[in-house]
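so the lab meeting is tmrw and i was supposed to have these ready like two days ago... anyway. pasting both below. for each one the top line is the aa sequence and the line under it is the structure tokens. i havent really looked at them closely yet so no promises
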Amino acid sequence: MTSQGDTVARAAAAGRAGRHDGPVTSPRDKPDTPAAARSRMTGKQRREQLIEIGRKLFADKGFEGTTVEEIAAKAGVSKPVVYEHFGGKEGLYAVVVDREIRTLLDGITGALTTRGSSRALLEQAALALLDYIEGSTDGFRILVRDSPAGQSTGSFASLISDVASQVEHILAAEFKRQKLDPKTAPIYAQMLVGMVALTGQWWLDSRKFKKADVAAHLVNLAWNGLAGLEAKPSLRALKG
């Protein structure tokens, strides 16, 4: 069985090969009609339009449930236009996934590179993930729909690994301070990031708690452990 990671890699190459940045028109875009003049787009504009349409359809229906015909119909173009830009549905999906991963990683990386205590950085990282889920719900659905966190391959599994590698150095520094073995930091980084990501998936659908409260409880368990849970946890960074 071909993994999603392999599919995305091939799709990205196909998307690059099929990229077309010149003016694009469909058969219905006839130059001698007013409607055609209004609907004509540059290649860049059409590409962005197709990415936004694909993003919404992939979020709602998943990769398998979305067709090139539907993407083209939503954009008001013919199927060949989609192929010109992305080489097919796989290429478009690869572009969408790549953008979402970069957006989320940028947010978390920014949170982890600010100044503050280890606990403050943990709070900021948890909030960064929840901020992304809240502000880019469709994007997060795409990342987790076709590549659940439990899989060892795929976009979401790769994302978790990337984030965990950035958390390692924070945990290693804290372990050294507490005279714990810093070599075990990668194990705890995977557990920590996995816990936050799975809780984020749950919160995406339930929304029973406020974002700050979810982050506070995550940090409560991650920082204090079950033996030292606070009765009413809150984010210290928000108090400053």
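ok protien two:
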Amino acid sequence: MKQLKIAVIALLMLALGSNVNAQDENNPWAVSFGVNTIDFYAGSDFGDQMKDLLGNSDWNVLPSISRISAEKYLEKGFSLQLAGSLNKISTFKSKDDSDFLYYSIGANVKYDVNNLIGDTSQYFDPFVYLGGSYVSVDSESEGMLNIGLGFNTWFNENVGLSFQHATITGFSDQVARHYQSSLGLVIKFGGTGADGINKNL
């Protein structure tokens, strides 16, 4: 987990340069695959939640590809994301106190923050999102609300890394609220050139 935190910090430090390559009408489709972490935080206020997030002893990670997503650009910086994830929960309230599966499938509406603040850089392409998901933990499941943020960092016009972090809150007491963070490879495609021919074929 220390390596994951170092990688995320390093990506943030690369927020320099120009030429944002955000997903847009010229590259309307994107797919992503990578890893996710789940943290069932115990704190009820923001201060407790941040302490729990930064003190990552209770993060649950499945050491394999455990999250996939597909996105379609809509318009004016908005895109629709469909995502599914799988995890194994070994820490719920204390280390190694659990052993059960977690999975979720849902949809998020993402907004490219560059539409508000102007172009940043190809290394820091931020977004926020709101959505819902069906979450199953052990033998309990329910629909939950996703509120999150993240950023993409692009290696070229079509390939980059994507980081997302969300607070996931339910409408009943079936599944405890929790954090989900993910890091994955993202690939954009579907763009067309001036002649109208798909340039990614």
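from a quick look at the 2nd one: Residues 1-21 have pLDDT under 50 and may be disordered. The CA atoms of residues 39 and 107 lie 20 Å apart. will dig more after coffe
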